[in-house]
Amino acid sequence: MNVILTYRKRVITQDDISFIGKVIEELWSEGRTTISRRLCEVWDWRQTNGYLKDGVCRGLLLRLEQDQHITLPPRLSTNNNSGIRKNSQAIFDFSPAPITGALRSLAPISLRQVRRTPEEKLFNTLIRQYHYLGYTQPVGEHLKYLIYAGDRLLACFTFSSAPYAIDCRDTFLGWSPEARERNRHLLAYNSRFLILPWVTVPHLASHLLGRIAKSISEDWQRLYHHPILWLETFVDTERFAGTCYRAANWTFLGLTSGRGKYNKTKKQLTSIKAMYGYPLSRDYNQRLCHG
After folding, report:
1. Cα 190 from Cα 185, distance rounded (Å)
2. What percentage of residues in the chain have a pLDDT greater than 70?
3. How confident is the model at residue 23, as a pLDDT?
4. Pick from 175, 194, 242, 276: CA 20 to 30 A from residue 236's CA?
């Protein structure tokens, strides 16, 4: 078997490349999403809730194209990723009034889950324009939140499927590879957290982390039909101190090596990240390791 690569635990062989090429040729005019969904259906590549892993499959297709194994058709619509619009003019161009003062003066604060709602485009635009990492489509299951004080925007959150294998997290949880395989969908990764630049309110970030911890499992259950037991995130140590996570009682788990996701050397290529975790139930460890 001539293995080309392994992507998200799926082994891709030369025979798979040939099959993917035939599907691309057949569905060329119907676009990349249709191609990825067809491949997921044939491979029965699904999430734990039964939904197709078409987002993950599109990531695989992009990787194969990058490695010059396939050629994908042109996108049918403008890509939301930050790299595509890096130099384009921002869409979100109003000038909101500064929001300052004490946290209690903002009440009531509301958290709106906007995944699969008309407000999702607003969320994407805010992250693309104001977050230092820009916008990329979250991997797998994910939720997006807009935070309001009345009708005034304060912040944005994204939580998505957790990374597969992280040494410091896996050591802290103490779960086996089998338990990780079975229960990783019960973890959510805070991939973006943005306090909008016109908002300067002490303790707001840690307050919102506490609020999100109380509602995210129910929101996840509503959309994906299973709860969340554990939250985690990475903090770039060259930019941030992780103060709001510590203030919200998240646990420091350890530091990354800085080698990056696909680096096969022992050299540091990216900034060191601090990893933090937060359990959402008292019996989280029992349920993740043995449930």
Report:
1. 14
2. 88
3. 92
4. 175
d(CA 157, CA 154) in angstroms, rounded, equals 11
Structure tokens at 53: 């892993």
Helix/strand/coil (H, E, C) string of the chain? CCEEEEECCEEEEHHHHHHHHHHHHHCHHHCHHHHHHHHHHHHCCECCCCCECHHHHHHHHHHHHHCCCCCCCCCCCCCCCCCCCCCCCCCCCCCCCCEECCHHHHCCEEEEECCCCCCHHHHHHHHHHHCCCCCCCCCCCEEEEEEEECCEEEEEEEEEECCCCCHHHHHHHCCCHHHHHHHHHHEEEEEEEEECCCEECCCHHHHHHHHHHHHHHHHHHHHHCCCCCEEEEEEECCCCCCHHHHHCCCEEEEECCCCCCCCCCCCCCCCCEEEEEEECCCCHHHHHHCC
The C-alpha atoms of residue 29 and residue 87 are separated, in whole angstroms, by 28
Q: Where are the domains of the chain?
A: 3-66, 101-289
Q: Which residues of 130-166 are buried (b: 16+ CB within 10 A; e: fewer)?
A: bbeebbbebbbbbbbbbbebeeebbbbbbbbbbbeeb
Nearest to 192 by CA among 168, 159, 215, 166: 159
Q: Tens of pLDDT along 256-274?
A: 876 555 445 555 556 889 9
Rounded to whole angstroms, how far apart are CA atoms 72 and 32?
7
pLDDT digits (tens, 9 = 90+) for 54-107: 888 988 999 899 888 999 998 876 544 444 344 333 445 556 789 999 999 998
Strands 230-236 and 251-255: unpaired
* CATH number assigned to the domain with residue range 101-289, chosen from the 4 options 3.40.50.1010, 3.40.630.30, 3.30.2000.10, 3.40.50.300: 3.40.630.30
Per the structure block, which two tokens stand in for 208?
């919102």
